[in-house]
Design brief:
elongated; about 80% helix; 3 helices; mainly alpha
Length: about 90
């Protein structure tokens, strides 16, 4: 039973990482290509919504990433760092 539990946790973490990566792509696109997004006139508001989703996903990872290791957390931190390093002021 322990193996199944571990597999479920690992699957959840992998799902959350994929969800997180998708939101990072959305935020990167919003930040770097905001001119081409006519539906979003409130760029800061849209960015804030995506950041809320990112924070929620990171919280989920923290809840289930107990014994899997810190690799998921460091992947999230790396994605966040890359996002802000790529943006220009």
């Amino acid at each position: 039973m322990k193996k199944v539990s571990s597999q479920i946790r690992k699957a959840l973490v992998n799902k959350y990482i994929a969800d997180f990566d998708a939101e990072v792509v959305n935020l990167t696109n919003l930040v770097h290509n905001s001119v081409g997004i006519g539906d979003h006139t409130d760029i800061v508001g849209e960015a804030d919504k995506i950041i809320e989703k990112l924070a929620h996903i990171a919280d989920k990872v923290s809840m289930v990433d107990v014994n899997i290791g810190s690799s998921a957390k460091s992947k999230i931190e790396s994605s966040i760092n890359c996002l802000w390093e790529d943006s220009s002021d």
